[in-house]
């Protein structure tokens, strides 16, 4: 089948490359000429493990192309995916749908023959109805169906999540559209992937509900971590003890500095706004948003307390800036709250991250960047771990001990053993562990 992917951001680029690898002919369209030039030179604008090779293979095979010209791509497509950004709108927290609606209008002007218009972007309930209305108004004679097909990609594992998903959700009442979507995802039938067909509005809500539920789990275990510290319990053992219950599950029960990234912060906020507008507030999610924001700020206080309550004039080596490992994504990363609070308290911060420092430089000021983890902590008064990159799990702790001016290690991801760190002579502070 022929696919047009409108938008070459994280979702559009990964989805386009994976559909091409399924054997479809995919054209990715973006108005950013610089980005398209880079892609046509084989340069991937985001860090995602395996994506560079996947793109190169499918470009070479003639199944994947990149262009700024939407006309031919849309006119020839069986399915046109809208995969543009939906950031939080300034002022009220609602999802900004201007890019989605602009894409819908452009598609309406260029489509030729029956076309399935698929909303891949994360959008509030009812957005598909508006997309359909825009297309109908722009091109009254158009033969089309609007489908909701939310993405469930984890940054750092996106290719696996696309090719071996837990499920595929398709929201449409059109049987012709269902047939197109079945054909697009036909390779997944071999793996017996559940493909859930729902109404469009139900599909749109599934995405928000899934992200909100995961955000609730993260925030719950973070609050349990605080309780563990207060009463002398171990949050990792609590997590394992409840996670082995099949009704709860073990995933997303790792205590830390709070969730961040491109999805959870904006999606939980958008869900609360949608619910309030519908007269049906989701008070649990409202609280999660507030607690998570406060937690990020509290992590700086945790570091300051570990350093005797005063960091003025002291040097802190920070390891990890991205919101999670295996990505360069800095959106709503805990480091964006923690590091400014430390520098405002008078600390000198030297940071290192394997992939995200080029993005961090756009968002953070008042700190220095190192070329390695060991350079970041050399002569520092404390080492603070914010992101759990694998390379930080395997640091030479003897070298760390001699590199640091003092013995303070604040591990906000619990990647080391308190017993082992104590034996090595560190003053070791983690999250939710005695």
UniProtKB/TrEMBL annotation:
Signal peptide: none
Keyword NAD: yes
Keyword ATP-binding attached: no
The enzyme's E.C. designation: 1.1.1.22
SMART domains: UDPG_MGDP_dh_C
Main enzyme class: oxidoreductase
Catalytic activity annotation: UDP-alpha-D-glucose + 2 NAD(+) + H2O = UDP-alpha-D-glucuronate + 2 NADH + 3 H(+)
Segments forming domain UDP-glucose/GDP-mannose dehydrogenase C-terminal: 317-418
InterPro entries xref list: 6-PGluconate_DH-like_C_sf (IPR008927), NAD(P)-bd_dom_sf (IPR036291), UDP-Glc/GDP-Man (IPR017476), UDP-Glc/GDP-Man_DH_C (IPR014027), UDP-Glc/GDP-Man_DH_C_sf (IPR036220), UDP-Glc/GDP-Man_DH_dimer (IPR014026), UDP-Glc/GDP-Man_DH_N (IPR001732), UDPglc_DH_bac (IPR028357)
Pathway per the UniProt entry: Nucleotide-sugar biosynthesis; UDP-alpha-D-glucuronate biosynthesis; UDP-alpha-D-glucuronate from UDP-alpha-D-glucose: step 1/1
Alphabetically ordered keywords of this record: NAD, Oxidoreductase
One Pfam family cited in the UniProt record for this chain: UDPG_MGDP_dh_N
Superkingdom of the organism of origin: Bacteria
Gene3D superfamilies: Cytochrome c1, transmembrane anchor, C-terminal, NAD(P)-binding Rossmann-like Domain
Family that this chain belongs to: Belongs to the UDP-glucose/GDP-mannose dehydrogenase family.
Alphabetical list of NCBIfam families matching this protein: NDP-sugDHase
Protein name: UDP-glucose 6-dehydrogenase
UniProt source species: Henriciella marina
């Amino acid at each position: 089948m022929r696919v047009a992917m409108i938008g070459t951001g994280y979702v559009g680029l990964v989805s386009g490359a994976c559909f091409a690898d399924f054997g479809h002919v995919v054209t990715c369209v973006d108005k950013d000429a610089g980005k398209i030039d880079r892609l046509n030179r084989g340069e991937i604008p985001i860090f995602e493990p395996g994506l560079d090779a996947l793109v190169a293979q499918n470009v070479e095979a003639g199944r994947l192309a990149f262009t700024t010209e939407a006309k031919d791509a849309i006119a020839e497509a069986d399915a046109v995916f809208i995969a543009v950004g939906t950031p939080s709108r300034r002022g009220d927290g609602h999802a900004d749908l201007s890019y989605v609606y602009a894409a819908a209008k452009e598609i309406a002007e260029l489509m030729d023959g029956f076309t399935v218009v698929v909303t891949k972007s994360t959008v509030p309930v009812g957005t598909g109805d508006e997309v359909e209305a825009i297309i109908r108004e722009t091109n009254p004679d158009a033969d089309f169906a609007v489908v909701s097909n939310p993405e469930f990609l984890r940054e750092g594992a996106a290719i696996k999540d696309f090719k071996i998903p837990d499920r595929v959700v398709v929201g449409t009442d059109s049987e012709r559209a269902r047939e197109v979507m079945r054909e697009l995802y036909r390779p997944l039938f071999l793996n017996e992937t559940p493909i859930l067909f729902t109404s469009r509005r139900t599909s749109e809500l599934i995405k928000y509900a899934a992200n909100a539920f995961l955000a609730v789990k993260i925030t719950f275990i973070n609050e349990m971590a605080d309780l563990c510290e207060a009463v002398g319990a171990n949050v990792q053992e609590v997590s394992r003890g409840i996670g082995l219950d099949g009704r709860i599950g073990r995933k997303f029960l790792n205590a830390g500095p709070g969730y961040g990234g491109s999805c959870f912060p904006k999606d939980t906020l958008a869900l609360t706004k949608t619910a309030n507008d519908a007269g049906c507030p989701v008070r649990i999610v409202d609280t999660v948003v507030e607690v998570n924001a406060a937690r990020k700020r509290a992590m700086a206080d945790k570091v300051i307390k570990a350093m005797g309550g005063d960091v003025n004039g002291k040097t802190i080596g920070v390891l990890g800036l991205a919101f999670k490992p295996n990505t360069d994504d800095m959106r709503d990363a805990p480091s964006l709250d923690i590091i400014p609070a430390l520098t405002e308290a008078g600390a000198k911060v030297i940071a290192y991250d394997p992939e995200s420092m080029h993005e961090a430089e756009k968002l953070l000021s008042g700190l220095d960047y190192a070329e390695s983890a060991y350079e970041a902590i050399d002569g520092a008064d404390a080492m603070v771990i914010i992101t759990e990159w694998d390379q930080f799990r395997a640091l030479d702790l003897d070298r760390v001990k001699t590199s640091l001016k003092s013995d303070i290690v604040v591990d906000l991801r619990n990647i080391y053993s308190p017993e082992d760190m104590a034996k090595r002579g560190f003053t070791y502070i983690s999250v939710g562990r005695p």
